[in-house]
């Protein structure tokens, strides 16, 4: 039995989304697969060592005995590209298939995968799970007035990803932002406005690049950037990118640069010459519709 899910990049609105403001995030052409097969004895991970969080997630999602779980992934781990949300969604999908239910409701997968994501990250907004499930470009807002809808851009969004090589600890970053949340309301509010502007600027890459830049400044003001992230943002801009920002929870992880050609190739060349892991991503071609999570 298999369960699959997509990786993601947050284009605008990370952290503010935890406080009820909108975010825009895109699935990328990288994914994760969980394969379950029968085994004698206690349920276990094959081909790797389960850390405490993964052990707990397996206890929640899978039967206690009789299941061997194997994970294959092309999503970089701990870089803000949604590997744990993809793992949560893929585990839930595989577990539902294991129980013999073929077509689970999207809201059921959302609820169960969010419960697993809490094991990894404490207080997730749900945006990562929504994108991991749908493979779409998504406008997402959590809470009672929450919503998730897929957006169809006019054309591809030319993104280059630059990896700091540093672990991005989502639980720690979200907890650190919580400490200063009451004095950061004006930052969250502006991030939410930027998301709405970004949705209307998907066809206008110059405007969208300016939104990335302002979003990065706000994330710096929120205290979640790092010198390594700021250096990659500067490299992207100096290479002709129209805008760049950290993506995900910060502290480490990746920067995304909006870099149409020829800036994209120039940026990749310069990054590689400096030994930085850099790559392009595209949006998957077969996204699923996004439903409103219950
Ligand atoms: C992490 O990918 C995005 C954050 O906004 C946390 C969340 O929304 O759960 C930092």
Summarize this, please?
The chain is 39% helix and 25% strand. With 294 residues, it is of the alpha+beta class.
Describe this structure in words.
With 294 residues, the chain is α+β, with helices and mostly antiparallel strands. It contains 9 helices and 10 strands. Strands 1, 2, 3, 4, 5 and 6 form a 6-stranded mixed beta sheet that branches. It starts with a strand and ends in a 13-residue tail after the last strand. Bound molecules: (R)-mevalonate. (R)-mevalonate (MEV) binds next to α4 and α5.
Features:
single chain; 294 residues; alpha+beta; 4-stranded antiparallel β-sheet; 9 helices; globular; binds (R)-mevalonate
Topology readout:
Layout: E1 2-12, E2 23-42, E3 44-46, H1 52-61, E4 65-73, H2 83-98, H3 106-121, H4 127-134, E5 137-141, E6 147-151, E7 159-163, H5 170-179, H6 185-199, H7 205-222, H8 227-238, E8 243-247, E9 254-258, H9 263-273, E10 277-281
Parallel strand pairs: 3-4
Antiparallel strand pairs: 1-2, 2-4, 2-5, 5-6, 7-9, 7-10, 8-9
The structure holds (R)-mevalonate (MEV).
Residues 10, 14-15, 17-18, 80, 124-125, 127-128, 170, 174, 248-249 line the site of (R)-mevalonate.
